[in-house]
Design a protein that fits this description.
This protein is mainly α. It is built from 21 helices and two strands. Strand 1 and strand 2 form a beta hairpin. The N and C termini lie far apart (78 Å).
Length: 563
C-alpha cells in the first residue's frame, strides 16, 4: 500500500513541478521523470500484491460518511493498475521530443500538469474504497482527459472534446446511481458496507451501461469518428485509463453484489450477446476503414467486445453447476483481452503516429509505395495492421484460445460464436491487407516527403516497448495465469460461498493448451521480427522525381479548366 501512496504523491508533485515558471527543458524533464517514477512505483506495488497473494491492504487516513479518504490495494486493483500505468509511462517517453505543433511542444507546462494529474487520479480512483471518493477521483480523471484532448487538438477538437466529456459524465452519473442504490441503507459509503438487497439486477445493469457507454460498445455509439481525430499520444493512453476505470467500476460492482447466490442466467447471456454484436460490428467496420486511426479504433473496439464475452461466459459459469475453476479462467481471459487492448492498442497508436509523420497522410490509399521506397514505413504499416486482438502475438489471441478450451460441452451456440470470432478476425485482417495493398506495392502515393522513420528512434522505441509487452504477456501465460487466477479467486469465492478454488485448469484441458499457445505466439512473434529485420536491411528503391509541385496528401488534384 505504501508503494501506491508513493505513486500518487510523486505524480501529483510532478504535475505541480512541471507547471512552475521554469525553463522548458527543466519542466519537460521534471514531467517525464516524475511520470516514469510514479508509474514504476505503482506497477511495483501492484506486482508485489499479486506475487505475495495479498488479498487486501487498507489505509484509512480519514473516515467520514461520504467522501472519506479510505484507500486500499487488493488483487483486482493491482491487475488493472499494471496495464494502465504501463501505457501511461511509455507514452510519456514519446512526449520527450514532441513534434512541432503538438500540445506537448507548444504548451509543455499544461501538458505535463494534465498528464500527471490524469495518472495520479487514475491510481487514486482504483485505490479508493469509498464510493464517493471513487467518483470524485473519476471526475478528475475525465476532466484532465478533457483538457488534454481540448488542448492537443486546438480549435478543431472543440466538438470532439465536449462530446467526449458528455459521454464520460454520463458514465459517471450512471455509476453514481448504481452506488447510490447499493448504499441506500448504509451510513458510510465504503465498499465493504454496500449491500444490494433486492435490487441486484438494476444495479448490475446500471454498472454495465456505464461500462458500455465509456468504451463505446453496442448499443452505444462506437466513438470511432471522435477517437480518430484525437492526438496519437492521447489515443495511446485512452484504453488503459479511460476504459480501465469503467471496467473497474463494473468488476467492483460485481464484487459487491456477490453474496454466495449465483447470478441470474440473463446477466451472462446479455454480456455475451453485447460482446458478440460489438465484435462483429467492429470487424465489419475495420475491414472497410480507409483511415489509419479509424482502423485501430475499430480494432480496440473488437478487444473490448472480447472482454465483454469473456466476462459474460464467467457469469454463465457462475449461474450453472460448473467447477469453480471455469469462471475464474474466463475472468483470466477477460483480463488478457483487456491487457491486449491497452498494450497492443496503445503501441499501435504510437506507431501509427510515426507512420502518419512519415507519409504525411492518414488515408491508407495515399500511402502507396511504402514497401518499395520506404521499408521502415512498410514495417510500421504491418504492425499497425496487426491491431486485431484475436491474431497471434497479442494477448487477445491467448484469451480466445482460453475461452474456446473452457467452453461448456454440448453448447454449439457458444462454441460456434467463439469460433466465428477467431475466423472473423482473420478474414477482417485479410480484407484490410487486400483493400490497402498499394501500401506495399505499386507506385508511390502523392505524399509529402518526410525523413525515414528508422532514423528517428524516438518515434519507434516507445511504442515497441508496448508492442513487445503484448506477446510477452501471451507467451508467459503458463506462469502468469496461476497468479491472475489466484488474484481473481476472491470474486468467485464471493459468488459461490466457497473457501477455496480448485485447480487452475481441468486436467483434460491443461495438458496441451499452454505449450501450444506459447509455441504459436512465440513462433509468430519471431517470424514478424525476422521479417522486419529483412525489410529494414533492404535498400530502398529510388524513383524519378516528379515534375511540378507535390500536392498535399489528403487533397484531390485540381481540375484543369477547359480551354
Amino acid at each position: 500500500m505504501s508503494w501506491l501512496a508513493w505513486s500518487i504523491t510523486i505524480l501529483f508533485l510532478g504535475a505541480i513541478g512541471a507547471s512552475l515558471p521554469v525553463r522548458e527543458t527543466t519542466a519537460r524533464l521534471v514531467g517525464v521523470l516524475t511520470c516514469l517514477a510514479g508509474s514504476t512505483a505503482g506497477v511495483f506495488g501492484a506486482f508485489e500484491t499479486l506475487l505475495n497473494r495479498i488479498h487486501s491492504s487498507r489505509l484509512e487516513v480519514w473516515s467520514a460518511p461520504f467522501a472519506s479518504l479510505n484507500l486500499g490495494l487488493d488483487s483486482l486493483t493491482a491487475l488493472l493498475l499494471v496495464p494502465g500505468l504501463l501505457a501511461g509511462g511509455v507514452a510519456s517517453l514519446r512526449a520527450i521530443r514532441p513534434r512541432p505543433g503538438e500540445f506537448a511542444a507548444n504548451h509543455h507546462r499544461e501538458y505535463w500538469l494534465y498528464s500527471n494529474i490524469l495518472l495520479a487520479a487514475f491510481v487514486l480512483a482504483l485505490a479508493a474504497r469509498n464510493a464517493v471518493l471513487f467518483l470524485l477521483a473519476g471526475e478528475v480523471v475525465f476532466l484532465a482527459a478533457f483538457l488534454l484532448l481540448l488542448g492537443g487538438g486546438g480549435r478543431k477538437n472543440y466538438p470532439l472534446s465536449w462530446r467526449q466529456l458528455k459521454i464520460w459524465q454520463l458514465a459517471c452519473l450512471i455509476q453514481f446511481s448504481a452506488f447510490a442504490i447499493l448504499g441506500r441503507e448504509a451510513e458510510v459509503a465504503n465498499f465493504s458496507l454496500l449491500h444490494p438487497g433486492a435490487l441486484a439486477t438494476p444495479v448490475f445493469f446500471l454498472a454495465l451501461a456505464a461500462f458500455l457507454a465509456a468504451t463505446g460498445l453496442f448499443p452505444f455509439p462506437s466513438g470511432a469518428s471522435g477517437r480518430q481525430d484525437a492526438p496519437w499520444t492521447f489515443n495511446a493512453v485512452w484504453p488503459g485509463v479511460l476504459g480501465g476505470l469503467p471496467l473497474y467500476g463494473l468488476l467492483r460492482t460485481l464484487d459487491i453484489l456477490g453474496n454466495g447466490v449465483p447470478p441470474p442466467f440473463f446477466w451472462g447471456a446479455g454480456l455475451v450477446g453485447v460482446g458478440l454484436v460489438s465484435i462483429f460490428r467492429a470487424l465489419w467496420q475495420r475491414s472497410r476503414a480507409d483511415d489509419l486511426a479509424r482502423h485501430i479504433v475499430h480494432a480496440t473496439a473488437e478487444g473490448w467486445g472480447l472482454v465483454a464475452v469473456a466476462l459474460g461466459l464467467g457469469l454463465l459459469d457462475l449461474a450453472s453447476d460448473r467447477p469453480a475453476s471455469f469462471p475464474t479462467l474466463h475472468f483470466v481471459a477477460a483480463y488478457l483481452a483487456y491487457a491486449g487492448v491497452v498494450t497492443g492498442g496503445g503501441g499501435l497508436f504510437l506507431l501509427a503516429g510515426g507512420l502518419h509523420s512519415l507519409g504525411g497522410s492518414r488515408r491508407l490509399d495515399n500511402l502507396g509505395g511504402l514497401g518499395v521506397s520506404r521499408p521502415g514505413g512498410e514495417c510500421l504499416a504491418v504492425l499497425a495492421g496487426l491491431g486485431t486482438p484475436c491474431l497471434p502475438t497479442l494477448p487477445g489471441f491467448a484469451a480466445l484460445v482460453l475461452l474456446f478450451a473452457t467452453l461448456p460441452e454440448g453448447n454449439p451456440v457458444l462454441v460456434l460464436s467463439v469460433l466465428a470470432v477467431g475466423l472473423g478476425a482473420l478474414v477482417s485482417f485479410a480484407l484490410s491487407l487486400t483493400r490497402h495493398r498499394r501500401i506495399f506495392r505499386g507506385k508511390p502515393g502523392a505524399t509529402l516527403p518526410h525523413p525515414e522513420v528508422v532514423a528517428l528512434p524516438g518515434e519507434v522505441l516507445p511504442p515497441l516497448l508496448l508492442i513487445l509487452a503484448a506477446p510477452a504477456l501471451a507467451v508467459s501465460l503458463p506462469w502468469s495465469a496461476p497468479v491472475i487466477q489466484s488474484a481473481l479467486a476472491g470474486l468467485v469465492r464471493l459468488w459461490r460461498g466457497e473457501r477455496g478454488i480448485r485447480g487452475v485448469l481441468p486436467s483434460e484441458v491443461s495438458g496441451n493448451l499452454y505449450p501450444v499457445l506459447a509455441g504459436v505466439t512465440a513462433a509468430t512473434t519471431l517470424l514478424i521480427v525476422f521479417w522486419m529485420l529483412g525489410r529494414l536491411l533492404r535498400k530502398p528503391a529510388s524513383f524519378p522525381k516528379r515534375k511540378g509541385k507535390l500536392r498535399h496528401s489528403g487533397g484531390k488534384p485540381p481540375r484543369k479548366g477547359n480551354k
